[in-house]
Structures are given as structure tokens and as C-alpha cells.
């Protein structure tokens, strides 16, 4: 859903990307710093129960990580390796966020229900990403789903941040919604991939394919 905002966001970030490119910053530097900051923040703050502080710091690094594309466009240095590195580190960042929550809920937070809910979100989130990657590796486009990475990040960071401020029930609701939407997205992508991979191919010379 948030994909429709990407062209606008790209235009807004381009001046910042040009500034960083003039300083000699590369897209990979931005990607690495954003990912390392996210992972470190999630695994330091969340296991200690610092939910609001952790969410605020993670959000800052996530926003910084979004600049890698702007730097790549500004310096005309976009590459397949850069896209691969960005995608890989995004998966690790997402896993760190939910892993930090699992550690807190099953440890000092003493809330096993939320702990297992966060664990389900972790597993299903990997499923969402893997299905798309595997489908595209087999030649089937699978760019569908009600909750892509952007939506999932917004939900979890907002819910955890507000929960850390003491807003009642928002953390439980956020994790519940995230778990539901992730599960639905997994099913959507499985169905889409099956349809594309099992669709009969039209014979050569078919008027509809000519």
C-alpha cells in the first residue's frame, strides 16, 4: 500500500542524496550504517524494556537507511549488488527488531503471550520475504500482499513506541494486527505464485500472444 508513496518520497530525498554524494558517501555506506544502527538499537534497547527509546532510535536509523536509493540516484551508482545488499540487510534488521521484543516479553517483560505473538510475526515476516524472492527466482513476479515491509515496520514501531509510553492495549493490538496481516500476506503470495507458476503456457503462434 505504501509503495504508491515511493515516487514522492524519492523526489523529496533526492536533494539529501545529492548532498551526501558530494561528501563522498556511497549507497553501501548508507545501507550498512542504517542496518547496523537498527540491529544494535533493537538488540540493546528492547531486551531491557526501553521500548519507546528503542523505537525512536530505530526509526531514525530506518529513515536514514531510506537514503541509500537517493544517494545511488544522485551519484548514478545504482547496482544489482547494492540492491542485493539492501534487501539482505533489511531482512536482518527486521529480524533484530522482533527478536529484541521476543527476548523482552519472554524475559523481563514477563508476557509470554506477546512473546509468542512477536515470534509468530518474526517467522511470518521471513515467510513473506522468502516467498517473493523464491518466486522471482523461478521467474514469477510476486509483488502482491496487503502488508509489505514498509507497512509492517510502521505498525510495529508505532505500536511498540506508544506501548513504551504507557498507552494501554496499543502494543497488544499492534502485534495482533501485524500477525494477522503477515499471515494474510503469506497466503496471498502463495496463491499468486501458484497461479503464475501453474498457468498454462499458450502454444507458439497463438493469436493472443502474437
**Name of the level-1 CATH class:** Mainly Alpha
Query: What is the CATH architecture assignment?
Result: Up-down Bundle
Q: How many E strands?
A: 0
Instruction: Report mean pLDDT, rounded to a whole number.
Output: 91
Tell me the overall shape: globular
CATH topology name, in short, is Four Helix Bundle (Hemerythrin (Met), subunit A)
Order of helices and strands: HHHHHHHH
Sheet-strand content, in percent, reads under 5%
CATH evolutionary superfamily:
CDP-alcohol phosphotransferase transmembrane (TM) domain
Count of discrete structural domains: 1
Mind telling me the C-alpha Rg? 19 Å
Helix content: over 70%
Distance from first to last alpha carbon: 34 Å
Low-confidence stretches: none
Structural class: mainly alpha
Number of helices: 8
Quick one: biggest sheet?
none
Amino acid at each position: 500500500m505504501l509503495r504508491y508513496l515511493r515516487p514522492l518520497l524519492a523526489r523529496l530525498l533526492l536533494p539529501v542524496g545529492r548532498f551526501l554524494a558530494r561528501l563522498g558517501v556511497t549507497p553501501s555506506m548508507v545501507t550498512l550504517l542504517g542496518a547496523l544502527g537498527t540491529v544494535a538499537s533493537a538488540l540493546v534497547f528492547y531486551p531491557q524494556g526501553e521500548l519507546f527509546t528503542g523505537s525512536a532510535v530505530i526509526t531514525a536509523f530506518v529513515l536514514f537507511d531510506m537514503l541509500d536509493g537517493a544517494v545511488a540516484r544522485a551519484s548514478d551508482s545504482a547496482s544489482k549488488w547494492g540492491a542485493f545488499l539492501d534487501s539482505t540487510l533489511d531482512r536482518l534488521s527486521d529480524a533484530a527488531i522482533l527478536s529484541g521484543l521476543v527476548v523482552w516479553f519472554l524475559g523481563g517483560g514477563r508476557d509470554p503471550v506477546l512473546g509468542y505473538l512477536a515470534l509468530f510475526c518474526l517467522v511470518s515476516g521471513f515467510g513473506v520475504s522468502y516467498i517473493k524472492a523464491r518466486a522471482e527466482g523461478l521467474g514469477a513476479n510476486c509483488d502482491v500482499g496487503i502488508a509489505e515491509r514498509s507497512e509492517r515496520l510502521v505498525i510495529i514501531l508505532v505500536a511498540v513506541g506508544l506501548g513504551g509510553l504507557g498507552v494501554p492495549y496499543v502494543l497488544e493490538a499492534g502485534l495482533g494486527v501485524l500477525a494477522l496481516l503477515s499471515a494474510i500476506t503469506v497466503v496471498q503470495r502463495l496463491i499468486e505464485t501458484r497461479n503464475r507458476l501453474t498457468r498454462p503456457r499458450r502454444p507458439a503462434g497463438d493469436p493472443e500472444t502474437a
